[in-house]
């Protein structure tokens, strides 16, 4: 459905220098895919999303949508916007219209539907997202979660083939996040193709068919949720091994290292088991090394065993 080739995006600074936000992005998104874009803030996730529907046109590369290069000057951008909807973190509802009028507006003005048909479909969509009782209410009277559900209904009114979600829950109170995520889960069950910028890691794991981990303008890792979320535990585990293997090898001559992962709790455990000792090897450990270990792990457990002593780092 969507193929991205060597996509790049640069901005020109006032002093004449340039800032490259996207660097050689390559990926393929198929019909029915649910892609979550994760990674630290400022790594190009939202820019990539906005480049896909040309809200922020890229400066290099190609984007093929249904086999056509949408960066071509002859490509009808208005048709792209009909097929590729977007839900923003700031809602972007028209405050001078009711919720119902917001949902009806584009189908009437852009698709040419009659008001009667648009009204019928709009009410159906508002019922779908649990907002039918707020149809005649102004957006200013809604909670953040209600505004976002109304924004999703407005997007669905255009019958898009793909929906782009730009951090749809970041502006919400934590108590309201669940009601928006439940609507998105329902869309996923119905087979809607979605590309989602999110910091909700559990949601990304539960809903995604694939996850793109972005860093420094690149897609650094791409894979299934299981592959990505296990992989993200490997880096701190390797760092801990480098820090503590010398410490534990000095403490005893028989060292066993074990890494386990619980997919339900999403917690990894890195265990160092040293035979023939009765106290923790960390007692004589350098303070800087211990501080580094605390930044890499969520908890450190020290406990004696029948054969020696175990230090467990929970990641």
Model description:
The protein is an alpha/beta fold. It contains nine helices and 14 strands. It has helices at 45-52, 77-83, 99-109, 115-128, 144-156, 174-189, 201-207, 225-251, 287-296; strands spanning 2-12, 18-29, 34-38, 60-65, 68-69, 84-87, 162-166, 193-197, 210-215, 218-223, 255-262, 267-275, 299-304, 308-314. Strands 6-7-8-3-9-10 form a six-stranded mixed beta sheet, sandwiched between helices. The protein has a four-stranded antiparallel beta sheet with strand order 2-1-4-5, covered by helices on one side. Strands 11-12-14-13 form a four-stranded antiparallel beta sheet. Helix 3 packs parallel to helix 5, helix 4 crosses helix 5 and helix 5 (144-156) packs parallel to helix 6. It is elongated and about 80 Å long. The two termini are 37 Å apart.
Outline the fold blueprint.
Elements: E1 2-12, E2 18-29, E3 34-38, H1 45-52, E4 60-65, E5 68-69, H2 77-83, E6 84-87, H3 99-109, H4 115-128, H5 144-156, E7 162-166, H6 174-189, E8 193-197, H7 201-207, E9 210-215, E10 218-223, H8 225-251, E11 255-262, E12 267-275, H9 287-296, E13 299-304, E14 308-314
Parallel strand pairs: 3-8, 3-9, 6-7, 7-8
Antiparallel strand pairs: 1-2, 1-4, 4-5, 9-10, 11-12, 12-14, 13-14
């Amino acid at each position: 459905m969507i193929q991205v080739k060597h996509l790049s995006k640069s901005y020109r600074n006032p002093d004449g220098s340039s800032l490259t936000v996207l660097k050689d992005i390559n990926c393929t998104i198929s019909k029915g895919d649910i892609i979550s874009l994760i990674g630290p803030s400022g790594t190009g996730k939202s820019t990539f999303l906005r480049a896909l529907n040309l809200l922020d046109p890229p400066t290099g590369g190609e984007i093929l949508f249904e086999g056509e290069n949408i960066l071509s000057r002859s490509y009808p951008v208005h048709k792209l916007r009909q097929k590729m909807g977007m839900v923003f973190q700031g809602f972007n509802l028209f405050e001078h219209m009711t919720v119902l009028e917001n949902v009806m507006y584009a189908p009437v003005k852009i698709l040419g539907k009659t008001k009667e048909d648009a009204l019928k479909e709009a009410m159906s969509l508002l019922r779908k997202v649990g907002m039918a009782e707020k149809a005649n209410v102004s957006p200013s009277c809604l909670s953040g979660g209600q505004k976002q559900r109304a924004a999703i209904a407005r997007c669905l009114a255009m019958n898009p083939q793909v929906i782009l979600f730009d951090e749809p829950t970041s502006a919400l109170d934590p108590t309201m996040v669940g009601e928006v995520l439940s609507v998105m889960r329902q869309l996923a069950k119905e087979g809607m193709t979605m590309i989602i910028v999110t910091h909700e890691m559990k949601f990304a794991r539960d809903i995604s068919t694939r996850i793109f981990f972005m860093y420094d303008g690149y897609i650094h890792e791409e894979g299934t949720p299981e592959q990505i979320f296990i992989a993200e535990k490997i880096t701190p585990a390797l760092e801990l091994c480098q820090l503590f293997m010398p410490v534990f090898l000095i403490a005893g001559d028989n060292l066993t290292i074990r890494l386990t992962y619980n997919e339900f709790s999403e917690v990894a455990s890195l265990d160092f088991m040293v035979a023939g000792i009765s106290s923790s090897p960390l007692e004589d450990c350098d303070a800087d090394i211990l501080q580094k270990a605390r930044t890499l792990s969520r908890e450190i457990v020290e406990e004696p065993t029948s054969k020696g002593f175990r230090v467990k780092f929970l990641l």
